[in-house]
Every structure is written in C-alpha cells, then in structure tokens.
Amino acid sequence: MIAFVISAITFVISAFAFVISAFAFVISEFAFVISAIAFVISAFAFVISAFAFAISAIAFVISAFAFVISAFAFVISAIAFVISAIAFVISAIAFVISAIAFATSATPFAILATAFTILRAYLLKLRGSSASLNPSPSKLNASTVKIISTAGGQINQGCSTKIEALLARESILPQEGSGC
After folding, report:
1. Which of 3, 132, 165, 175 is the most buried (most CB within 10 A)?
2. Per-residue pLDDT tens digits for 162-176
C-alpha cells in the first residue's frame, strides 16, 4: 500500500508539474504576442516618425520658398518705391513748368527748351576745358567794361526779369525782334 501512495503522490506531483509547465507555455506565448504587438507599435512609431520628418522637410522647403517670395516682394516693393519717387519728381517738374508758363505766359515747350539749354550750359561748365585748369591772368584782372556793364538792373531784350529774358532767347523768332 505504501507503493500505491507513493505512486499516487508521484502522479499528483507530475500532474502538477504538467499544469505548471502548461501555464509557463501559455505565459511564454502571451509574452511572444506582447513582444509582437510591441514590434508592430515600434514599426508604426517609426513610420509616423518618418512621416513627421517628411512633413518637416516639406515645411522647411515651403518656408524657404516663402522667404524667397518675400525677398522678391521686397525687391518689387523697392522698385515700385523708386518708380513712384521718379513719378513724383516728374510731377514736380511738370508743376514748376506749369507755374513758370502761367507766370510768364510762355509755352511749356519754350520753358523746356530753356531748361535744357541752361542744363546743357551747366553740364558743359562742369566738364570744363582740358587746356588749362588755372584761370588766365586776364580773368583775374577787373576791367572797366565789366564794372560798367554789371551796374544796375537793366532790361534785357525788352524783358523785365532774367527768367523772361532766358525764355525770350529760346522762344523768339528772328523776325519778331523781341520775346516779351
């Protein structure tokens, strides 16, 4: 009977070992499933990270493109500012020409011709002569003729002001004799 009890105890112990080993097998399978799920989650996180990197790169390219467009807009704006400044100067010149034309009863074309003549004379004076950079001694000596001719405000070509005289020089025809 002792052998029967020992064999029953052995049977119970081996059955218990079988249950524990089955439980260990289930736990290891569960661990395998959990590690497979962790692998899938890790792969999904990698895909999301790659997607985020791609979106970041696209955002960088868009940002660089926006910067280039902004710089281009700044250049266009600067050009527009220069053009508007030129337009303002042209408007101011037109206003001055209109005011002179109204004050002197001269045509705007005669005023423009006079202005270009004065500008040309000024530019020629700026350019100067290459023959000598020092004034001649005769220019340094005062002459009686110069003193006499510059005294007092005289009427030039029948005009009462220097502007009228300048305009008259450009606007009169030879047969008219007087430009005012």
Report:
1. 165
2. 666 666 665 555 555
Contacting residues for 97 by C-beta, under 8 A, at least 6 apart: 108, 111, 112, 115
Q: What is the CA radius of gyration of the chain?
A: 52
The structure's pTM equals 0.39
Can you give the chain as a three-state secondary structure string? CHHHHHHHHHHHHHHHHHHHHHHHHHHHHHHHHHHHHHHHHHHHHHHHHHHHHHHHHHHHHHHHHHHHHHHHHHHHHHHHHHHHHHHHHHHHHHHHHHHHHHHHCCCHHHHHHHHHHHHHHHHHHHHCCCCCCCCCHHHHCCCHHHHHHHCCCCCECCECCHHHHHHHHHHCCCCCCCCC
